[in-house]
Amino acid sequence: MYQYFLGLDFETANAGRASACAVGLHLVDKRGNVLLSEDLLINPEDDFDAFNIAIHGIREKDVQNSPHFPAIHRQLADLLKNYPNTLVVCHNAAFDMSVLRTACERYRLPYLCFDYVCTYRIARSCFPDFYSFTLDSLSRKFLLPKFKHHNALADATQALHLLGAMQRKMSACSLLELMDMANLDFGVMLERDYKACRVKKKSKK
Question: What is the pTM of this model?
Answer without folding.
Answer: 0.96
